[in-house]
Write the structure tokens for this entry.
Amino acid sequence: MMGVFRAAVQGMISSRNWIDVIGQNLSNVDTIGFKRTRAEFQDLLYRQVANSQNGPGPLLQVGSGSDVVAVQNMFFQGALADSDSATDLAVFGDGFFPIDLPDGTVAYTRNGNFHPDVDGRLVNPNGQRLASALSVPAGFETFAVQGNGEVVIKMPDSNDSISVGQIPLARFANPAGLISSGDNLWRATDASGAAQIGNPGDPGFGQVQAGRLERPTVQLSDEMTQLLIAQRSYQLNSRALSTLDAMIGRITEQRP
Amino acid sequence: MIRGFYSAVSGMVENLTRAQIIANNLANLGTVGYKEDTNVFRSFKSIFLQRISPDGTTPLARISTGTEISPVVLKLDQGSLTATDNPLDVAMTGPGFFSIQTPNGIAYTRTGHLYRDVEGQLVTADGMHVLGQNGPIALPSRDVEFGPDGSLFADGLAFDKLQLVEFANAQGLKKIGFNRYDSAETPTQAVATQVKGGYLEQSNVDPIRAMTDLLTVQRAYEASQFISNLHDQMTGKAVNEVGKV
């Protein structure tokens, strides 16, 4: 009997998830390196309703609503904006910065908002290190990244540029399969495949540019339009639920 | 026994089913490639009311014994296309479907948000292989283009073609959930279907019509329920009051 409400309830649940995904995009409208996500839906199993008079023949099927089948990360290139800090990095292409996490695992990000820590290692605003032996001495005058990811700096007391290490990049067979783990980090999954580590400039990895940051790919107007549709969808489904409830209610209220 | 009671109740049952079908359509407003289920009512076989007189029986009028919902009719109208800029989004215009390989055999779909999986093959969002001319399609990279006839291009060179099909009797298609259709009929190669990469075909559910249908169904249900109540009261009178002195 509760099957009566199934489609409407599933419709409300998937509309709510839809709104959640849009909300996440909207709240990251200013997050460096953020990639917008998209909810994708599927219809659910159909059950056959007894069709008394027809006997065998075309079926009368009633569906059970819809569900989110995937939330796809849309890996489009974001616009590269100039930043104030020379150690800010941006990827132009498909690569990700690998980040060493304190628990020994590796996560991946497009957020190149790095600065050198006390040891000269490049860290993100959360203090997590770029997975590289690169060490930048304190007090450098210029900081540049070569086409192959080699970092070249110049000290104030010298005329020569020196190479201090290499910026690595990671890429994936199926980036859409990466799973977001918060803080602008992604983790590899079976669906994404393991990370292939390479250098900027290698085929398919993209370029790294210093002194720039990648803007998020969220388009405010698109998201607001989607939000309107998702919200109406929620309302329509909740209206369907209350209508079905009123219909069922009349049975139980039937008095002898 | 109480003829009118049964026909009123059949009206309730069928309207409740119809309301659930509408609710399912509304739940799939955001489902890419979804096709609306519609249906119409029809009456059961009608019977003659007859008067029995000494000369035999004379027909008086036909009356219906109730309603029955007809099998679901797929509304196969084209859904609107929206641009997404994503190279692996595919929309179709025309009556066709693309073929996918599922664990239970080949199924058909119009849902075009596709992925390149770890092995580099073209798959649906739930990981089913999309079929080309020689089975699953291997993509050299994510940057592929679709030609109008379903051909796939990488760097300007065609390397495979989607297996697009059309059905002589599209109403014979059966929805099996997960955006898939099953068909008993062997489909033919698509001729009137065009493919557009970077677009998605939205659900063809019309929310305004669905909402007004839902209201109609609700009122029809209430009317049937009212009639069934009347019959109940009439029977109550016959049982308890007829014959009282």
In short: Chain B has a mean pLDDT of 89.
